[in-house]
Amino acid sequence: MKTSIKKLLEDVRDGAVPVDQALLALKEAPFEDIGFAKVDLHRPVRQGAAEVIYGAGKTPPQIVAILGVMARHGQNNAIVTRLSPEAAQEVNAAFPIEYHAEARLGLVGGFPKPDGIGRIVVATGGTSDVPVAEEAALTAQMLGNDVLRLYDVGVAGLHRTLSHLDELMSASVIIAVAGMEGALASVVGGLVDCPVVAVPTSVGYGASFGGISALLSMLNSCASGVTVVNIDNGFGAGYFASMVNHMEVKK
Amino acid sequence: MKTSIKKLLEDVRDGAVPVDQALLALKEAPFEDIGFAKVDLHRPVRQGAAEVIYGAGKTPPQIVAILGVMARHGQNNAIVTRLSPEAAQEVNAAFPIEYHAEARLGLVGGFPKPDGIGRIVVATGGTSDVPVAEEAALTAQMLGNDVLRLYDVGVAGLHRTLSHLDELMSASVIIAVAGMEGALASVVGGLVDCPVVAVPTSVGYGASFGGISALLSMLNSCASGVTVVNIDNGFGAGYFASMVNHMEVKK
Amino acid sequence: MKTSIKKLLEDVRDGAVPVDQALLALKEAPFEDIGFAKVDLHRPVRQGAAEVIYGAGKTPPQIVAILGVMARHGQNNAIVTRLSPEAAQEVNAAFPIEYHAEARLGLVGGFPKPDGIGRIVVATGGTSDVPVAEEAALTAQMLGNDVLRLYDVGVAGLHRTLSHLDELMSASVIIAVAGMEGALASVVGGLVDCPVVAVPTSVGYGASFGGISALLSMLNSCASGVTVVNIDNGFGAGYFASMVNHMEVKK
Amino acid sequence: MKTSIKKLLEDVRDGAVPVDQALLALKEAPFEDIGFAKVDLHRPVRQGAAEVIYGAGKTPPQIVAILGVMARHGQNNAIVTRLSPEAAQEVNAAFPIEYHAEARLGLVGGFPKPDGIGRIVVATGGTSDVPVAEEAALTAQMLGNDVLRLYDVGVAGLHRTLSHLDELMSASVIIAVAGMEGALASVVGGLVDCPVVAVPTSVGYGASFGGISALLSMLNSCASGVTVVNIDNGFGAGYFASMVNHMEVKK
Amino acid sequence: MKTSIKKLLEDVRDGAVPVDQALLALKEAPFEDIGFAKVDLHRPVRQGAAEVIYGAGKTPPQIVAILGVMARHGQNNAIVTRLSPEAAQEVNAAFPIEYHAEARLGLVGGFPKPDGIGRIVVATGGTSDVPVAEEAALTAQMLGNDVLRLYDVGVAGLHRTLSHLDELMSASVIIAVAGMEGALASVVGGLVDCPVVAVPTSVGYGASFGGISALLSMLNSCASGVTVVNIDNGFGAGYFASMVNHMEVKK
Amino acid sequence: MKTSIKKLLEDVRDGAVPVDQALLALKEAPFEDIGFAKVDLHRPVRQGAAEVIYGAGKTPPQIVAILGVMARHGQNNAIVTRLSPEAAQEVNAAFPIEYHAEARLGLVGGFPKPDGIGRIVVATGGTSDVPVAEEAALTAQMLGNDVLRLYDVGVAGLHRTLSHLDELMSASVIIAVAGMEGALASVVGGLVDCPVVAVPTSVGYGASFGGISALLSMLNSCASGVTVVNIDNGFGAGYFASMVNHMEVKK
Amino acid sequence: MKTSIKKLLEDVRDGAVPVDQALLALKEAPFEDIGFAKVDLHRPVRQGAAEVIYGAGKTPPQIVAILGVMARHGQNNAIVTRLSPEAAQEVNAAFPIEYHAEARLGLVGGFPKPDGIGRIVVATGGTSDVPVAEEAALTAQMLGNDVLRLYDVGVAGLHRTLSHLDELMSASVIIAVAGMEGALASVVGGLVDCPVVAVPTSVGYGASFGGISALLSMLNSCASGVTVVNIDNGFGAGYFASMVNHMEVKK
Amino acid sequence: MKTSIKKLLEDVRDGAVPVDQALLALKEAPFEDIGFAKVDLHRPVRQGAAEVIYGAGKTPPQIVAILGVMARHGQNNAIVTRLSPEAAQEVNAAFPIEYHAEARLGLVGGFPKPDGIGRIVVATGGTSDVPVAEEAALTAQMLGNDVLRLYDVGVAGLHRTLSHLDELMSASVIIAVAGMEGALASVVGGLVDCPVVAVPTSVGYGASFGGISALLSMLNSCASGVTVVNIDNGFGAGYFASMVNHMEVKK
């Protein structure tokens, strides 16, 4: 990218670009032209994968407007997170989206062909953790990943976990989603040798404190190879796992 | 016991006991004589098992004095908990005790012959949990239990846990001792069908918060049949497990 | 159980079982056949006692389906926990259950004949703690226990507690249910010599912090022989107490 | 007191006091002369009772200086709180004090003759709570109260508490000092009908969290007539109890 | 009271009372007859003052039933606390009560003639604290106290506090009710020399954490003579202040 | 101001003012006349700026009454904070106000001409933070400040923050409003050299704990020149920033 | 500053600067030359005021090295914060500093002549808060402010606070330093009409929780015009107050 | 691996292995031989990379013993974490290790040749975070990664962060290590498009609460692509980053 500044400077030297115009160029696209291009694009996505809109803080009209802009720029795949059913209906009236109520995700464009290194396994401790897991799984699918769901394999019935050992060990990345005491992350982390992204959920009652118990449990996991995202942050786990699953040598 | 009051009243009626003496009797042993005997004895122990002295809040001379009183009353077995090495040395100079430095226990009298229903298994997640586990194990032994130690069988290497499945399943009661994320209790509770007493330990760093993470994890265990004691309370777990292991039909 | 693997191996040796079939057997029932039988059955229950379904994370159709499977396998007794009145009504339309609104429990099959060692006493500090206590008491009854309820015997009127001393002392296990400052567990634990399972409740306001005050109080009980379950976890206490009350010598 | 301002104004009117001098008087003793006298004296004490110096934030020379000023103004009784043994020794070299190591109190002047309404009973749950209790008891004695100590009457052995019922019921005010689960306050509050000042102590370990457990327990006491001071604040309890024990009709 | 046991024993001796009847008497009223009379009555109240029913955990029919029992025993004054408007209406249909919506109190019988030592002043920091203050003030009035209300005298406008100094200093006991930072208790405690009972309220937002900020502030008050009750516990403060205001010499 | 007391005293001396009248004057305006004038006025505002009414704890009629009093005294500008839409409608029926629903502010009188030292910039991390930011911005405008809004410039897209560097650096005071991890305050504080008032918001979920995460982040800001107000306290930030922006040399 | 880029571009156009050299210039001082000068200088200080070195995370040799670089660049005034006595001695051996042990500050260069708008008043609640206050006061002095210290004017003796009202009201900015319940900030904020920067200190015990109580109290201050810094962050308060006291119109 | 069981079964069938020997084989290496090989090896490492020993809970003799066993099995590279200088010295006397005091790591064997996908960048906010960063960096190096250290690039001087943008953007994985408010993770996450592993450190004071502030900040990061490990867990971050940097297609 520095070459583009060099090119600009050469143009200035050669009189091809007047000083004021060069100044303007440096100012208007200040970061892109001087090496901050990645910054400017912020969340660069691979071809065909989806752009992300955080839906929680936006009104349906705002979401529709953003989707419109994206569509005009040829970005035809999008994920709208934390979208309520009501907002989804309102958005859909103006811009067709595919709404997944459980995960509270609105999707635009179909799932791209998976192009990651391997498979992402999304496992949950119980059935109550499924909404968060779906947010993670659908996000990963929209970002071009092959996803395998292993739900309700919590450690209270350890045989359930163990009976899926083959599938767990086939994963490139595992997203372990669990509430209550969140032991799934440690047990899975103790069984496999791939990165495990742990998602604590707010499932539970009493001393689960809205997910704090699971969060602390996962942060203190005695198994190596486990990192943690925010409580109920299925999207973040899916996004991160997709990044890991698309690792490639940088030139 | 009510019969003893009845007897007293009959004696009063018959003139065998003067009113004032009866009044004094009712007053001096108020609870024992009128049905509160268990209260008065407070911690009744089976023949041969040890009496307990909480050592933390007592000076060596106080401990020596109590041990002396007990000895004079024929109570020759005792456990002194939370006893520092320095205090142990000072006590030992006046009253011979057997000091277990790791568990910080001072024992008087040998282990009684086990007379419980079955075996108490004391398992730990890691080697750092051993001091708390020893406090539990020695307490249980002093209270007349057959104790099996399974140390360092934490879930980070789940195979270690599973390779001791036979021993775990042979237990009448299991004491699961673990710090960090405390997942051992849930995993063990998900493997066996006997009562599990979970002891969170203060082992760990950062977000283990001195045992809070393990404590919350254990309280939120998705496995049934798990109860919890205070952080690092090996004594309490050993005492409770011994009670359970000595259950008998009350007449 | 190891004998069943031995038998399988002998059959392989004798040609009675082909290698592939033996491999499949080891794989299909991997844990049961190689010593994990208990794992597979997970929550083995005594004859006639109830199986447990955690209702909170399941839809009525899911619950009906599970009850159906259980019925087909001859399991005619069941407890569905944390069942809302609305869900209970929906379940009941498809599969008859007996709903206890206060305890939020759905029961299938009548109470089995008590076959425990002794009696379980469920005591509460106040009337507001009764729903949690009923969850514990009904669970224990469904699991084959003789249960005595002592409600509203909190320590603010210590004479109420003391006037039930005989009944407290007749218990094999006591479940002490209390909110606010949770002192009931310590006072009961200081009066009796049987295991006490303490259940903190979310009853209270202000600095009771949804049960944290009672939870901490119970964890720090100065009385020996007290363990604790999660806030409002009546089911867990009933289940654990039943385990204790059915202790038996293992062969 | 307003009369003193009136007097000043009359003196001004009569020329007995020049304006500037009156202005100075109003300024120098601004609050005392205009109705804030109590403010100015801050901690007004009854004749013979002790003045209080909070020792924690002061150097020995500062404490000596203050004691000197007090002595020069005829205040011969003083309490220095939270005084370390080292500081006490240093103070004592310059100004004779009577140091109570356990309570960390330095006392000047003997105990005044008790002149309160009744007796203050200071009760503790265990022996470890005694230092805080002594701070309360000595403070109350220095402020002119008849004090009865009932130590180690905690609820783990409820008969111990009950065997002192007469003494508890003889109190005008009770100071209940306890760590761990702090149930003593509720039990005592449920037995007596006089004000109970509860002092949580930092005695305990694990989930006692340096006194938080006892503090919350006491704040949530189901017994009426209980108020609470800061953790380990024996002085505050003794001071408050003395105030209550010296209630009198205001004119 | 011991004399009553003595009398019973004398009657037994004299044959006036048969042994079995004496035994029954000792058992039926176990605590009253053997010195626990105060316990049995639990909350003994002065003539004409109100009995208290904690309304939160009780249904309207339960409350009506209790009020009925009390009425039959000649207890015509009562306070029902934490009574919702709906419950109040339902109770009132069966048993006439005077409902104070703001304080959520139901009162039976008029205010008794004040018979305390002096006056109780109830002060609040802001207008939002008034409901809790009213609970305190009405409770105190029902228990026979002269009550002065000083509302909205918080320290943000210190002149408001100071302008009521005369009234504050006329109090025998002050109840300081404040949310947010709860500084009122310290400021009032620094101005007067009578006992101050501080009531933190849940008024505030953000880092007030439902009253925790005010609670901690009050517990840490640098002013002596301040004790604290639970968040929003106006009743407890009124009850305690009334106890203090009715201190009398015990025989 | 002391001169006014002096004048009063001279008048007393000269007989121009009788003693009783002087006493009354000292009493009725106790603080103003003796140097506490600022106290009495409490929140003195510059000419034309708005008076503030905290709306949360007040009923619409109370607010109307206060606005009426203010109007009668010529105070025609007012801010009513934390006003719900329903309350706003009710107030407006009796006293015309301009209601800003997002900021929950009711304004009386137009914005005064800005007369501060410079410009106040109000920046937010995301769009969800805008309501709190508007409360800050409108407050500052009502108090006579030139306000520039920079919304949605959070650090997740650092280029967005940086692209407004000129505007940020033009500020006299910056109000940085952010939820979630609250990094905006540190980043802005690390870019500019003017005072930054950080406002944590309750925007976020899971471990944002209602704004605690942002609050802690801001309190721990590694950038100098940052102070913090309560969670969601837009008003406080606007008020404080206005104070800073109106600094002037005191005579 | 943009002109400097323009100049560079013109030089390139004119051939005065080769393209590669211009490219290097843009790269080596990337931000300064393109408008980020303030960023580059980071903490620009007025002539004669001190540069700041955060001493906690640096070894004495590192500090000496930085001081050396600064000296070589003509920066002769510096503040080294959080400097232990041992580190100070070691630094001083290599580079003369003036060490203030109480405030743990190392100062280089004398205090500059005050050039702020007005006076900064630093007030403390007690004597234990003085070290933090000194950190604030010395920082402000080193940054060119006239500082007045008002120590030990806490609200427990409100008359002490009020007797300094004149001085408080003379301030341009007030730094209120207090531990325990931190009420000083609210009381001062309720008395004055200038910005108040509140500094909670870790002074106290028990429920002061290392400054949390004071922190929460200050964040919830009912007085307007109060912002808060981190616990014990005297430096931050002094730095911020100096910024406010040096406000000036930006061109 | 299943083939090895098949082989064993075939050997049994063919009489090559007796039944008892086969049973023993299945039992002695129960998981490895029946498909749990990965479990048994637990932390399988690539050729030449280091095995890990958690040093905190082990005595020097234990560590030496483990290193000895490893050496005998040809594992010549090892990392011993959380090793105190004293323990390191003791270990080193028996088994030569290379001790890195700052990171508290003992290393055996040199760094292997990096064989990861790309480069791991370890960045810190300040110099105090370096020990934790070194633990991460050395761990990653021992596990076969090319590591670039960017220390002291915190956001308080944002230009420092930005001036390393090229290096940050060259990373395959970034480990962001920061204490205090932990904003570095968000800022870095907002600049790059590779996975960021955030490590909160316990660096800071007051409301940093031993790393909680940074931890919460990182969990709530508004930037996507950020996961978090435990406070001060440099090892965990290095291990996880290495896993990610060694992602490969699974067959």
UniProtKB/TrEMBL annotation, chains A, B, C, D, E, F, G, H:
GO terms for biological process: 'de novo' IMP biosynthetic process. One of its GO terms (molecular function) is hydrolase activity. InterPro entries: P2CMN_synthase_LarB, PurE_dom. Residues 118-250 form the PurE domain. Transmembrane segments: none annotated. Signal peptide: none annotated. SMART domains: AIRC (SM01001). SUPFAM superfamilies: N5-CAIR mutase (phosphoribosylaminoimidazole carboxylase, PurE). Pfam families: AIRC. PANTHER family: PHOSPHORIBOSYLAMINOIMIDAZOLE CARBOXYLASE-RELATED, SLL1489 PROTEIN. This is Nickel pincer cofactor biosynthesis protein LarB.
